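Supplementary notes for students who missed Thursday's class. We covered one full example, reproduced here. Read the sequence, then the structure, then the short commentary at the end.
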Amino acid sequence: MRAPWLTWVWPIIILLSTSAVTLLIFWFPEAEIRPLVIMCFLFLIPGMTMVRFFRTREVAVEWMLAIVLSFVIDAFVAGIVLYAGQWSPTHIMSFLIGFCFSGAIAQLALVRPTTPVTATVSLNEKDTKIRIDSRDIPSIETNINTQDVGEQETSVLSIDAKEQETSIDT
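Structure (token representation):
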């Protein structure tokens, strides 16, 4: 499971790199560090803006998707600007900056809790603990085998992710 602080780190990194690229393109075009910062931005940030919405569990998969999606998004934007007849590197970068900025703001607005919910279910004096990651599973259907009756009952365990309340309906 990911650490809770990682939910906030990437949107902030995306916002900071978007701000740095904006400064270097529009206010400090003669800066010597400009090519390095812009290439890092183009190779990683547009893809990471999209990948963060996928909520992948593997860091390697997240990085691979981020790099590949960055190239795809960059090429797609360049193609749109070319076919629109407005070819300009400034137009392309302006569109990408707006895309990444709005994606990072959306990530910050859609932050969900990262702590798992633990529910205790009591059936016939037996306690069963169920650990559920509330980010991924809003409701779960479980089969509970009752020993007295010998039949299976289907229960629905629903979790309110905002308030982390747990209720069981049988």
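Commentary. Confidence is low (pLDDT under 50) at residues 138-152, 158-167. The two ends are 30 Å apart (CA to CA). If anything here is unclear, bring it to office hours.
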